[in-house]
């Protein structure tokens, strides 16, 4: 009789599973690895500088801006920001909230 072991599998909090498969630049994605902890201060400063240059009007609390959140998420997932343009609104909203939580903690 085989000895069965109960092995606890810890969920990787960096993994975001998309609501449905998504194709971007001929590659299918079913999940994103959002490694916010891998971002550096230089990454945040670069994103902030580019975000401010792109804005037509000032954003006072960037952490609450979906556009800013998606820029942070794109860097954390190592995908271009354009990735999120065709992604479902449901996924964009959820990924934005994950980025917001990272920024506000």
Question: What are the key terms here?
Answer:
single chain, 105 residues, alpha+beta, two-stranded antiparallel sheet, 16% strand
Beta-strand portion reads: 15-25%
**Got a strand count?**
2
The string of secondary-structure elements, in order, is: EEHHH
- Give the overall shape, derived from the CA principal axes: globular
Number of helices in the DSSP assignment: 3
Average pLDDT, all residues: 91
The strand line-up of the biggest sheet is 1-2
CA(first)-CA(last) distance? 50 Å
Structural class: alpha+beta
From the alpha-carbon coordinates, what is the Rg to the nearest angstrom? Answer: 17 Å
Low-confidence stretches: none
What does this structure look like?
This protein is an alpha+beta fold and 105 residues long. It contains three helices and two strands. Strands 1-2 form a two-stranded antiparallel sheet. Strand 1 and strand 2 form a beta hairpin. Helix 1 packs across helix 2 and helix 2 packs across helix 3. The longest helix is centred in the last third of the chain and has 16 residues. The mean pLDDT is 91.
Secondary structure layout:
Layout: E1 15-24, E2 27-33, H1 41-54, H2 66-77, H3 89-104
Antiparallel strand pairs: 1-2
Helix pairs in contact: 1-2, 2-3
Summarize the structure.
This protein starts with 14 loop residues before the first strand and ends with a helix. It is of the alpha+beta class and 105 residues long. Helices cover 40% and strands 16% of the residues.
């Amino acid at each position: 009789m085989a000895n069965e072991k109960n092995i606890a599998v810890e969920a990787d909090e960096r993994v975001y599973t998309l609501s449905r498969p998504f194709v971007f630049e001929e590659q299918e994605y079913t999940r994103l690895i959002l490694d916010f902890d891998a971002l550096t201060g230089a990454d945040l400063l670069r994103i902030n500088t580019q975000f401010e240059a792109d804005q037509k009007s000032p954003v006072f609390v960037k952490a609450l801006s979906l556009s800013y959140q998606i820029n942070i998420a794109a860097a954390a997932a190592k995908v271009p920001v354009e990735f999120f343009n065709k992604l479902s609104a449901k996924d964009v909203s959820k990924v934005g909230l994950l980025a917001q939580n990272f920024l506000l903690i």
